[in-house]
Amino acid sequence: MATPSRRSFLKTAGALTAASVLPTMRVLGANDDIRIAIIGINGKGNQHIKQFSKLKGVRIVALCDADKKVLDNRVAGFTKQSKGVTIDGYVDYRKLLERDDVDAVVIATPNHWHSLLAIHACQAGKDVYVEKPVCHTIWEGQRLAEAAEKYKRIVQGGTQNRSDVGLREFYPWMAEGNIGKILSIRGMCYRNRTGIGKRDTPLTPPESVDYNLWLGPAQDLPMYRPKFHYDWHWIWNTGNGDIGNQGPHETNLISWAMGDKTVPNRVLSFGGRFGWDDGGETPNMLFSIFEWDGIPVFFETRNMRSAPDQRMMPHYKGIRNPAVIITCEGGEFRGGRGGGWLYDAEGKRVRQFKGDGGGKHQANFIEAVRSRRRESLHAPVDVNARSSCLAHIGNISYQLGSKAQPEELRERMADDKQALDALERYSEQLAAWNIDFKKEPWTMGVNLEFDPDTLRFKGGNVDLDKANAMLHRQDREPFVVPGKV
Predict the structure, then answer these.
(1) Strand pairing class (182-190; 323-328)
(2) Residue 474: inside a domain, yes or no?
(3) Which of 15-19, 23-27, 470-474 has the lowest mean pLDDT?
(4) Which CATH number covers residue 454?
(5) 386: Cβ–Cβ under 8 A, 6 or more apart, which residues?
(6) Does 199 share its domain with 150?
(7) Distance from C-alpha of 16 to C-alpha of 2, rounded to nearest angstrom
(8) Residue 19 has pLDDT above 80, yes or no
(9) Domain carrying residue 451
């Protein structure tokens, strides 16, 4: 299937952010409620129920989940919290999308459903708030951006850092040149996670789950994890690892620093899944090196505690929480959700950009739904689709890699000071876990050149057809992301 050029993709992106007033399914008056349905309500979706319920002029009219037990509990909880207000519940999202009294949907399903659900919602004339990552693959993200444009929908990504007041102060200030040119950027996803356990026989989905609808476009593969919900994040068929779970918040901030208009042109990753001996597939330690318009960009994913008997996560320059570090000629910004600090060349704090955590991100979406002005969105879907490229190509480099011992990695990284530094810091942490690399070797990823014009790989030490095939998965019928939306 032909892949659109970057020009057509960016043309879509430009159209998404151009100042315009868009059509809606009904004419909204100042006092009309925006009627919301939430799809996927077990974890993050339950938070959305609470957050959207607090917004003035918003009325939640339906909930949807493929797990009937979760659905019934949420419907009952909503009725109790709202003191008797009833709400409709759906297992099949397609029935929900047929309703004329739903103006917008909020999608908080597993990753593998995000793009297709959002595309179907756009086609049904609904506006969309879709959780990160907005796409399970790069190809899906392109289709979703095209659908938002074609059907003139307001589509917001769930990267709420974009609404943090401190970051919204800092980024324009930096773009004005106040601290000079960007020299490098580092993103960090440090999470205090543990292994998910392992089964010898495949897991049977709970009886309350419509497994066909839960799978959707994902393949029907055996699951060797004990827990059905949430741990799908660590399986390639349904998730993207933590670089594609927590990581999209930080990769989106990196994209913001780079002007939101391009993608990296080179990637190399190394890592592994160490110490847990569980049913997960994605790396719990991953270091990805990107080249982006001549600027080095590094992304660290570290999901292990500093040591098995500690609860503390590792840190970098005193930062433990997921964050970004933007090093410029005249200073260095360290921060993320909740704002951050500007440091001088001596490492002293010189200015704070105090944030609020982006708590008004949902309100920003509702304001755009009401005004029909897509340029007012803080996290438009085309921007999210592009920033997700970092996670996807970082993972692909890793997945195409081969096993390697520490000395082999050091030899490969001999000319890269930052990569060697990361390898030593990672190795120090793994030493505390008594990792035997003969039994649990590293995975040395492949070096890949990525074409920003075609959004395809164009070079590297690997079969390019194999690498490009990973930009687009084979969907399970009939849940197929359309090539033409």
Answers:
(1) antiparallel
(2) no
(3) 15-19
(4) 3.30.360.10
(5) 13, 141, 255, 260, 262, 263
(6) no
(7) 22
(8) no
(9) 165-355+388-458
| Statement to judge: residues 377 and 413 lie in one domain | no
Number of folded domains that form the chain = 2
Residues with Cβ within 8 Å of residue 376, at least 6 apart in sequence: 364, 367, 368
What is the reported pLDDT for 30?
53
**398 and 377 inside one domain:** no
Tell me how far apart the alpha carbons of residues 136 and 248 are, in angstroms, rounded to a whole number.
12
Residue 55 and residue 196 share a domain? no
Provide the sign of the torsion angle of the four alpha carbons 423, 333, 355, 133, taken in this order: negative
* Mean pLDDT confidence for 79-100: 94
- The least confident of 30-34, 46-50, 232-236, 443-447 is 30-34
Domain check: are 209 and 224 in the same one? yes
Q: Are residues 182 and 276 both part of a single domain?
A: yes
For residues 251 and 396, state if they share a domain.
yes
Nearest C-alpha neighbor of 174 from the set 329, 361, 290: 329
Model confidence at 312, pLDDT cuts 50, 70, 90, reads confident
145 plus 172 within the same structural domain: no
Where is pLDDT greater, at 9 or 27? 27
Residue 365, pLDDT score: 98
* Assigned domain for 480 exists: no
Quick one: CA dihedral 151, 132, 472, 139, positive or negative?
Answer: positive
